[in-house]
């Protein structure tokens, strides 16, 4: 008998806190991952997107491995412990890889050995994927194991609190970690604080592990019972092998290819697998939805870095979990019942098709936003061209001739032909020293006469620079716009007029398209998620036996993984010249896939798994009383399942 508090096993409080910390850790790390690739490791957009989606795909494949390990070998408790240790090591490794000072021997704020940081971060991500995926199928089920048969009401409440913790962890971490990244930290040079942004999730994962271990003595621990997925795979494998052996026309055909497993496997198991395969066949077009959906963490994040907006950037990062929490009950309690009352047959498969179309519309919206952004960007030289910046620090206008016959007339302290390419999501500035001696500038190296500093990254808002030469000094202030680039020309009279003669040249204008324009695409993709994902799992579970849920869950996660792999392939091989064209390509592909899916759905016949199972049992010669008892139990379980699904919808 387990210890209880207010009718609940005390052990579940440890599990709930553990889940909150783990989800905070995962989503917090993921919220800044693509930015780390782009602005710390200095990868281009395509590579950053590809590695991000490879990581997400791995996170969706490893739960299958975790379920098999837990059910067939270690049991849920040991699987959670061991893989959480792997997970925590991965998060700590990832946090260490973001400390630029480790390899910054010349103390210029940039790592000298990127290979070290890349290797460490890739190792960290592989360990995180093994950990988060491996424990994903175990924690909720382990929590359910803590309840006795008489605690069905408390079990339902536990699931609702459990999934509330998932959403709370996701919401808080996507709010907090981007703010942590924006801080400045470092031992020798102050840079954007990736160690803090990744370090906090690492600490939360360690806390999650410690909390889970602390409740060890109170848990109900069940022995591994064997994994249904393994049985299903063996049965399917035998059917294929047996069919191949008897491929000759002399053998009579069977109604279904799975009937070739009759010689070895129970007819009930074969009937259950047939039902599952019917649903899995419908899963074939589904990866394309996830191809679009998961880009909100990569392409859309990178799109936001070319836009303006302070508070809105925090709002955008949290808009998905907020919309999920609000749209699920609105859809379930208001929209769907209203459609039914209008006499329309809005079946689950039709809802999923509409969900796909909403996701396609989201990408059309993203393309329109991208077109607006592109209008504000400067024209960069092509791969066969270069740009040259000529600065006149002389006291009068100069006529400059560039071979063979390009003539430039440059006024005193003026600039012609500006800037090489830089990152729009940062603000950079460069100082040109027209003073007659060396100058020291705050946070910059000393610059010699007629020399320049490197382009230096600065934070948005008002920034102060102090210029010194010996005892002479003056202060120069400037308000910086997000995404801009500036060159400051320092004249020889800089100290006599208290820095007021410094000339500012705006090489690149600040970002002017506001992040609020992204809200429609987030609303559309989240509406699509609610109609597609929630409905998809509910439909799957209603069309297959209850003991096959894990097989369907594995299939569902595989569609997600394949979707992320598609992004990876398109990002690496597609190489479309314009980002808006890529968005429209994905939208077009999803519309085409949704048409194929709607045709498949049209020919799908809805079934009642309990009825088919009862029929198979009858054919196997089960006593009517036993059949009736099993049917009643099944109906009760189905009722419990429906109640349970009601509280699980937010998570799904």
UniProtKB/TrEMBL annotation:
Write out the biased-composition intervals (Basic and acidic residues): 629-645
User: What's the chief localization of this chain?
Assistant: membrane
Gene3D superfamilies referenced in this protein's UniProt entry, alphabetically: MFS general substrate transporter like domains
Q: Where in the cell does this protein reside?
A: Apical cell membrane; Cell membrane; Membrane
Q: What are the GO MF terms of this UniProt record? A: symporter activity
One Pfam family of this protein, by short name? PTR2
Q: Which reaction does it catalyse?
A: an L-amino acid tripeptide(out) + H(+)(out) = an L-amino acid tripeptide(in) + H(+)(in); L-alanyl-L-lysine(out) + H(+)(out) = L-alanyl-L-lysine(in) + H(+)(in); L-lysyl-glycine(out) + H(+)(out) = L-lysyl-glycine(in) + H(+)(in); L-alanyl-L-valine(out) + H(+)(out) = L-alanyl-L-valine(in) + H(+)(in)
Instruction: Give the signal peptide range.
Output: none
Keywords annotated in UniProt: Cell membrane, Glycoprotein, Membrane, Peptide transport, Protein transport, Symport, Transmembrane, Transmembrane helix, Transport
Q: Which InterPro entries match?
A: MFS_trans_sf, POT_fam, PTR2_symporter_CS
Record region (Disordered) = 618-652
Membrane topology term reads: Multi-pass membrane protein
* Gene Ontology biological process terms from the UniProt entry: oligopeptide transport; protein transport
Q: Which family does it belong to?
A: Belongs to the major facilitator superfamily. Proton-dependent oligopeptide transporter (POT/PTR) (TC 2.A.17) family.
Q: What is this protein called?
A: Solute carrier family 15 member 1
State the species of origin.
Cyprinus carpio
């Amino acid at each position: 008998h387990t210890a209880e508090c207010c009718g609940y096993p005390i052990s579940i409080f440890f599990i709930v806190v553990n889940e909150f910390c783990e989800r905070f850790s995962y989503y917090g790390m993921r919220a800044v991952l693509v930015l780390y690739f782009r602005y710390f490791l200095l990868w281009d957009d395509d590579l950053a997107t590809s590695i991000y989606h490879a990581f997400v795909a791995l996170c969706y494949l490893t739960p299958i491995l975790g379920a098999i390990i837990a059910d067939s070998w270690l049991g849920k408790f040991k699987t959670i412990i061991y893989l959480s240790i792997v997970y925590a090591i991965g998060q700590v490794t990832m946090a260490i890889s973001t400390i630029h000072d480790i390899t910054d021997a010349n103390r210029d704020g940039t790592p000298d050995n990127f290979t070290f940081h890349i290797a460490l971060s890739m190792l960290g991500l592989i360990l995180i994927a093994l950990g988060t995926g491996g424990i994903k199928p175990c924690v909720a089920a382990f929590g359910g194991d803590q309840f006795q048969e008489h605690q069905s009401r408390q079990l339902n409440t536990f699931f609702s609190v459990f999934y509330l913790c998932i959403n709370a962890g996701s919401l808080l971490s996507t709010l907090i970690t981007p703010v942590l990244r924006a801080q400045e930290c470092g031992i020798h040079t102050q840079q954007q604080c990736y160690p803090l942004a990744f370090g906090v999730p690492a600490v939360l994962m360690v806390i999650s592990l410690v909390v889970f271990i602390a409740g060890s003595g109170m848990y109900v621990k069940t022995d591994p019972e064997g994994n249904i997925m393994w049985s299903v795979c063996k049965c399917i494998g035998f059917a294929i092998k047996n069919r191949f052996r008897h491929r000759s026309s002399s053998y009579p055909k069977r109604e279904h290819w799975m009937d070739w497993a009759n010689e070895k496997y129970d007819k009930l198991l074969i009937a259950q697998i047939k039902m599952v395969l019917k649903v899995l066949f419908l899963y074939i077009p589904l990866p394309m939805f996830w191809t679009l959906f998961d880009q909100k963490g990569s392409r859309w994040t990178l799109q936001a870095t070319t836009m303006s907006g302070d508070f809105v950037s925090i709002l955008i990062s949290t808009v998905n979990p907020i919309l999920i929490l609000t749209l699920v009950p609105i859809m379930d309690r208001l929209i769907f019942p209203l459609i039914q009352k209008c006499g329309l047959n809005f079946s689950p498969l039709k809802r999923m098709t509409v969900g796909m179309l909403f996701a396609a519309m989201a990408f059309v919206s993203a393309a329109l936003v991208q077109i607006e952004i592109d209008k504000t960007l400067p024209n960069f030289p092509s791969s066969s061209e270069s740009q040259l910046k000529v600065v006149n620090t002389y006291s009068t206008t100069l006529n400059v001739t560039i071979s063979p016959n390009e003539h430039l007339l440059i006024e005193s302290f003026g600039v012609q032909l500006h800037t090489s390419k830089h990152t729009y999501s940062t603000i950079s500035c460069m100082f040109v020293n027209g003073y007659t001696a060396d100058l020291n500038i705050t946070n910059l190296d000393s610059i010699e006469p007629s020399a320049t500093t490197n382009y230096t990254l600065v934070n948005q808002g008002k920034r102060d620079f102090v210029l010194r030469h010996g005892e002479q000094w003056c202060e120069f202030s400037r308000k910086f716009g997000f995404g801009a680039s500036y060159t400051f020309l320092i004249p020889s009279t800089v100290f006599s007029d208290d820095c007021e003669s410094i000339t500012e040249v705006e090489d690149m204008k600040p970002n002017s398209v506001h992040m609020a324009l992204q809200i429609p695409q987030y609303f559309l993709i989240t509406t699509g998620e609610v109609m597609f994902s929630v409905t998809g799992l509910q439909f799957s579970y209603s069309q297959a036996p209850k003991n096959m849920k894990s097989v369907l869950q594995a299939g569902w996660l595989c569609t997600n993984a394949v979707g992320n792999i598609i992004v990876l392939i398109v990002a690496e091989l597609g190489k479309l010249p314009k980002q808006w064209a890529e968005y429209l390509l994905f939208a077009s592909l999803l519309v085409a896939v949704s048409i194929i899916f709607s045709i498949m759905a049209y020919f799908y016949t809805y079934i009642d798994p309990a009825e088919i199972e009862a029929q198979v049992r009858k054919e196997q010669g089960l006593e009517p009383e036993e059949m009736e008892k099993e049917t009643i139990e099944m109906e009760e379980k189905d009722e419990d399942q429906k109640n349970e699904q009601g509280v699980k919808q937010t998570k799904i």
